[in-house]
Write a structure and sequence with these properties.
The chain contains five helices and six strands; from the N terminus they run ββαβαβββααα. It has helices at residues 35-43, 69-87, 122-135, 140-155, 166-174; strands at 13-18, 21-31, 50-54, 102-107, 110-115, 118-121. 38% of the residues lie in helices and 22% in strands.
């Protein structure tokens, strides 16, 4: 069995003051404690590096939260902040999910929106859903393009993508 070489990290160097001497050591952040992460941490164990292992057992990335975009956005921001904190030698801040409400379209020009104390249904909720989703798109061109696509689909009575179609049901019956 051949030994795999762990590539030399090119991390940010952190200066540590020990007595009167300043020593600079690399800081390696390993995201994920799976086989690869643990193997890398084990190989670096006796090297002159500072290791931070971020794993589901010691960090916020795998809390049971709803699988929606707001959770992913908040987790991404918190993870980036914690990576910066780890590089600076600061303590990691635990993730706290802030519930900002939920929205869902339920048909043509119909939606539901639950924003804590405020709740909307019907056309008003649908317009609110459109505005919120357009707001979070990156770039002016993307917003305009998506707005045109949505308007075209609305005016031409096109249906959105569906996971189950009638053709699939007929094919199963024929088999």
């Amino acid at each position: 069995m051949s030994q795999r070489r762990v590539p030399k990290p090119v991390p940010q160097r952190i200066a540590l003051v020990t007595g009167k001497r300043s020593v600079s050591i690399p800081h390696v952040v390993i995201v994920g404690g799976g086989f690869g992460g643990l193997y890398t941490a084990k190989r670096l164990k006796y090297r002159p590096v500072r290791i931070t292992l971020i794993d589901r057992r010691n960090h916020h990335l795998f809390q049971p939260l709803p699988g929606v975009a707001t959770v992913a956005i908040q987790q991404g921001c918190a993870t980036a902040d914690n990576l910066w904190r780890a590089c600076r030698g600061q303590l990691l801040v635990p993730f706290r999910y802030k519930e900002r409400g939920s929205m869902a379209t339920i048909g043509r020009a119909r939606a539901v929106a639950d924003l804590g104390r405020l709740q909307f249904t019907g056309f008003v909720a649908w317009v609110l859903w459109l505005v919120v989703h357009l707001y979070f798109l990156i770039g002016f061109e993307d917003r305009i393009l998506v707005m045109i696509q949505w308007a075209w689909a609305y005016l031409t009575l096109q249906r959105g993508a569906r996971l189950i179609t009638h053709e699939q049901r007929r094919e199963r019956r024929a088999l």
